[in-house]
Design a protein that fits this description.
The structure holds two protein chains of two kinds.
Chain A lengths: L4 E5 L3 E3 L4 E2 L13 E9 L12 E8 L5 E9 L8 E2 L7 E10 L8 E13 L1 E4 L3 E2 L4 E9 L9 E5 L4 E11 L5 E10 L3 E2 L3 E5 L4 E10 L22
Antiparallel strand pairs in A: 1-8, 2-8, 3-7, 4-6, 4-8, 5-6, 9-18, 10-17, 11-16, 12-15, 12-18, 13-17, 14-15
Chain B lengths: L7 E11 L1 E5 L9 E9 L8 E3 L4 E5 L6 E9 L7 E8 L3 E10 L16 E14 L13 E12 L5 E3 L6 E9 L3 E12 L8 E18 L9 E5 L23 E3 L3 E3 L9 E16 L14 E8 L9 E8 L6 E7 L4 E6 L5 E2 L10 E8 L5 E8 L9 E2 L3 E3 L7 E19 L1 E4 L11 E5 L8 E2 L6 E5 L3 E4 L2 H7 L13 E4 L7 E5 L9 E14 L7 E6 L6 E6 L11 E6 L13 H6 L1 E5 L8 E14 L1 E7 L5 E6 L6 E7 L6 E7 L2 E7 L4 E5 L8 E8 L4
Antiparallel strand pairs in B: 1-8, 2-7, 3-6, 3-8, 4-7, 5-6, 9-14, 10-13, 10-14, 11-14, 12-13, 15-29, 16-18, 17-18, 18-28, 19-24, 19-28, 20-21, 20-28, 21-22, 22-23, 24-25, 25-26, 25-27, 30-41, 31-35, 32-33, 32-34, 34-41, 35-40, 36-39, 36-41, 37-38, 37-40, 42-43, 43-44, 44-47, 45-46, 45-48
Classes of the chains: A mainly beta, B mainly beta.
Chain lengths: 241, 720
């Protein structure tokens, strides 16, 4: 097997009312079986998020007290050349903030993830600990993400992502908006070669101490293409006779 | 909108050494915001402090008598906004070194600030030379009563010239907002300003470290978020679970609280209908006045001086058919006149509920009411200005799943600013009607509105518990036949106090103190009510009836116990409790926070510990005791929200207190084919429970504070 491969990340978009198109990564044209995954933060937590046509929900986590926030990850196995999705207007909403990342090489049928976990941290501090998952297959691509409801425009909401069990852990999204009541999310991505517990991922919230919605997703790789067995040509000298 | 450090939308710091200086912000303030200025100034040493003033600001802080510097926090509403600078004056022993930090805070509740009605809204402390830390001290457990506050603290320390102390390590997740320092030939001074949001009632405090060890001072103020929910201060409640209406206003001595303070006509307490529990109040008259009231005054249920506001949820019931004429159902009244009130009517012409403030226009409910249903109404009467208002909800059937409906506010101008001095069930004019009432509660905290309807249940003496005495049990006897004494036993004591309705007279049984022992109490445990998974508790009222073998003076103290150190006095008298063996001598207490006399937080632990205590008699002659013990607990259903929801159908529901957000329980529902693990941290302890596919699992938590649950999550089973 091989790790799923990130293709790229689109621009973050926000809406207070109405539908909003969540763009693909720049210059990307949909390729069949790529996975489009949309991270979405909205408020109030009673908001019903209707996925775009063909998209499903990986998981949803809300923080319903303090500065409220709702964190959602949507996904779709793309078809060739299909257009970027239009996210229907959540109702009711004060804001909806979303960003897409495209992955290639995920498991080609059914759910493209191995495991996922959601949690809410009900401590208003600046430390972030995104819960661990235990992967059951090798070569997973791990997303570890959180959201808060702070009303601020920022692309520096999280720093110091750390998980010694993940390779190449790098922040891929960090987008807070002051649209409506505001809120945002950050996501870091890393690789986990062996199946097993990945441990918690920690980070520092650079914004105001807040409660957090947390999520970890282990994207499942496609099965490795089987190596066809081809018998060698017999070359014993005796056979040449 | 929570009030947190991000609510400080601009901040600026500076310093000067003069008799006055300018405090400024970088941009003009916005109307409706609050300006907060933290100040630290040098004094002249022990006993020679400076003082400060800022025109138009409230000043909270402290001039410590033995320290080198003072800390203050000035605050005011920015009014129309547009302000950028203010003058800070050194009014005593100037000029001095002064450091300041100005902050513009949005989303603060200016209406409750300055909050002079509550103690503990600001705190200060000082330590002398050699201090390595300084604390703001700790507020009372319910200092503000609000579930969303921003604490702003200022710490200051000074040292010899050339040395500026560091102030670091603010405890409890307080975040430093600014640090200012300066020095002159005499002293070096540093000020640190920090802030933290709290979503619970506290207590609040922050300690900072000082290096090198130096004289230090700290002050804290607590701002309340606009729109924050406050824990209700419940003044009185009644579910009528004592089962009798006999002399409901009678008490033995001044200061004792009766069930009601005034009664007109002949109210009954009946078991014919009850919304919760077994009893309700029946008011029935034929062209006559009939009502029961709680009023204000010394020894009255609505406090000595009246209530700032009147919050009043209750339920009523018409049996068989609606009344044939208008009925004045209940009212909240102010002192100045009979028209300075809000009255709630049943209007027969429209078959609706009408609410009318004074002589103002009556607002009718948005739908008709029906007989044979427990109709719920919650009022909030606000008579603080000359424009009185009444906000109200109607729940047309409080026993079904449909919730209450907000109604059009009733108002009246040209009134007298006043306080609430009477809450009345029933009618004040000659009326022919029969109305049943249940689950009534009065609170005075407008920021708790709408609190919602309550369910009031009885907690009787616990036959599974053990009655104890704190001293010799020989000081107490149980009795039957209104005075036939036997040696004290736990079982007999519990059995003697549990009749509903209580029996007074020849067949009365009870427990009495029979010999003098001022340090000896008898404690009789009451049963409990398990709140989780569905309910939260809002208030407790305890009832008893005093008894004495004769009418001559007999001392007895009676109090409610909830497991905490400070008991809740139910009255009695250590000279003459005023009881006899022939009449109903009521003793009641609606619990308040013992330290602040404000909102009382009902926890499962407190319910479990409920007991009645009596004794401490300094004469016990005649024998003196009680006939009856009962607690009523007011509960509400927890509100439910979906905490997480996977695409495969794993759903986690959380039930929480609608006011405090404390979590009562968590329910995990899994789809067929995939389970998962529910996990969380409660009180610092982790839990983890596997929920198999196609299952519903309920995890009871019963938290009384939002801070008890620090994490909650669900791990979905691997994809197969």
């Amino acid at each position: 097997m091989a790790f799923p491969t990130p293709v790229g990340t689109g621009a973050a978009v926000s809406s207070t009312t109405g539908a909003v198109t969540v763009p693909y990564p720049a210059a990307y044209t949909a390729i069949a079986d790529d996975i489009a995954a949309i991270v979405l933060e909205c408020d109030p937590v009673s908001t019903t998020v209707t996925p775009p046509t063909g998209y499903g929900v990986v998981n949803t986590q809300v923080v319903a007290s303090g500065t409220t926030t709702k964190l959602v990850v949507l996904w779709k196995r793309l078809t060739a050349s299909e257009a970027a999705p239009s996210l229907p207007a959540p109702t009711p909403t004060q804001h909806c903030h979303a960003r897409m990342r495209v992955l290639r090489g995920c498991f080609p049928t059914g759910n493209p993830w191995d495991v996922n976990i959601v949690s809410q941290e009900l401590v208003a501090d600046t430390t972030v600990s995104v819960p661990a998952v235990t992967t059951t297959v090798a070569d997973t691509l791990i997303w570890t993400l959180f959201s808060t409801g702070q009303d601020i425009a920022s692309t520096a909401g999280a720093t110091g992502w750390t998980n010694i069990n993940l390779s190449g852990l790098t922040e891929q999204m960090d987008n807070w908006t002051a649209s409506g009541t505001g809120g945002g999310f950050a996501m870091a991505e890393g690789q986990r070669a062996a199946a097993g517990a990945i441990g918690a991922t920690t980070a520092t919230l650079s914004l105001t101490a807040n409660f957090k919605a947390l999520m970890t997703i282990a994207w499942r790789p496609a099965l490795a293409t089987p190596t066809l067995w081809r018998p060698k040509r017999l070359s014993h000298p005796n056979l040449r006779r | 909108m929570p009030l947190d450090a991000s609510s400080i939308i601009q901040i600026n710091s500076g310093s000067f050494e003069a008799s006055s200086g300018t405090v400024s912000l970088g941009a003009a303030t916005t109307a409706g915001n609050m300006v907060v200025v933290a100040v630290a100034g040098m004094s002249l040493g022990a006993g020679a402090n400076t003082d400060f003033s800022m025109t138009g600001f409230d000043k909270n802080g402290f001039a410590p008598p033995s320290s080198w510097q003072t800390t203050y926090i000035f605050s005011k509403g920015s009014g129309a906004g547009g302000e950028t600078s203010w003058t800070l004056n050194v009014t005593v022993n100037g000029p001095q070194q002064v450091e300041w930090t100005a902050m513009e805070v949005q989303f603060a509740d200016l209406e409750v600030w300055p909050w002079t009605g509550f103690s503990g809204i600001y705190l200060s402390d000082a330590v002398g030379s050699g201090a390595t830390s300084v604390s703001t001290l700790q507020t009372q457990s319910s200092s503000s009563g609000a579930y969303d506050v921003l604490g702003i603290a200022v710490h200051a320390a000074s040292a010899a010239s050339g040395v500026i102390p560091d102030i670091t390590g603010h405890t409890g997740n307080w975040q430093e907002q600014a640090s200012v320092s300066r020095s002159n030939v005499a002293r070096g001074l540093r000020m640190s300003v920090s802030a933290r949001n709290y979503l619970s009632l506290g207590p609040l405090s922050v300690t900072a470290s000082i290096s090198p060890a130096s004289p230090a001072t700290a002050t804290m103020v607590v701002l309340v978020a606009a729109g924050a929910r406050l824990a209700p201060v419940v003044n009185v409640m009644c579910g009528f679970e004592f089962g009798t209406a006999t002399t409901l206003t009678q008490v033995g001595s001044a200061g004792d609280l009766a069930v009601f303070d005034e009664v007109a006509g002949t109210p009954e307490v009946v078991s014919t209908f009850a919304r919760t529990g077994s009893y309700s109040l029946k008011l029935s008259a034929t062209s006559a006045i009939e009502n029961a009231s709680w009023i204000s005054g010394t020894g009255k249920n609505l406090s000595a001086s009246g209530l700032i506001n009147g919050g009043f949820p209750l339920c009523f019931y018409f049996d068989g058919s609606l009344p044939g004429s208008d009925v004045e159902l209940f009212s909240i009244e102010s002192a100045s006149s009979s028209t300075n009130s809000v009255k709630v009517w049943y209007r027969s012409a429209s078959q609706k509920i009408g609410v009318k403030v004074g002589t103002g226009a009556e607002q009718l409910s948005d739908a008709t009411v029906a007989a044979n249903k427990w109709i719920g109404v919650e009022l909030l009467y606000d008579p603080r200005t000359t424009s009185h208002t009444c906000d109200w909800y109607v729940d047309y059937d409080s026993t079904d799943a449909t919730g209450p409906v907000l109604q059009t506010q009733a108002t009246n101008t040209g009134m007298t600013a006043d306080v609430v001095t009477r809450v009345r069930l029933g009618w004040t004019g000659n009326t022919t009607a029969t109305v049943y009432y249940d689950d009534a509660l009065v609170y005075s905290t407008r920021q708790a509105f709408p609190m919602g309807l309550v369910n009031i249940r009885p907690l009787r003496p616990d036959p599974g518990g053990t009655a104890t005495t704190s001293g010799s049990s020989s000081a107490f006897n149980t009795f039957v036949s209104n005075g036939s004494m036997s040696a004290f036993t736990s079982a007999a004591a519990i059995s003697a106090l549990d009749e509903i309705p209580p029996v007074v007279g020849a067949s009365a049984d009870g427990v009495a103190q029979v010999s003098t022992d001022v340090g000896n109490y008898c404690r009789v445990p009451l049963g409990t009510y398990n709140l989780a998974p569905n309910d939260v508790a809002r208030a407790v009222r305890m009832y008893s009836l005093g008894w004495a073998a004769g009418a001559s003076a007999g001392a007895l103290a009676v109090r409610g116990y909830d497991g905490t150190v400070v008991p809740h006095s139910m009255g009695g008298d250590l000279v003459d409790a005023g009881f006899d063996s022939a009449a109903y001598w009521w003793l009641t207490s609606t619990f308040k926070d013992p330290s602040s006399s404000l909102s009382y937080v009902v926890t499962q632990a407190r319910l479990d510990a409920l007991a009645i205590e009596f004794g401490a008699s300094g004469d016990a002659n005649p024998d003196v005791g009680i006939l009856f013990a009962l607690a009523e607990v007011a509960t509400q259903p927890a509100t439910v929200y979906i905490a997480s929801e996977s695409g495969a159908g794993h759903t986690v529901y959380v039930r929480q207190d609608p006011l405090s957000s404390a979590i009562a329980s968590v329910t995990a529902v899994t789809p067929s084919g995939s389970g998962g693990t529910l996990h969380g941290t409660v009180g610092g302890a982790d839990f983890s429970v596997y929920v198999p596919p196609a299952d519903i699992y309920v995890h009871n938590i019963g938290a009384s504070d939002i801070g008890e649950v620090t994490s909650l999550g669900f791990a979905v089973d691997p994809t197969t």
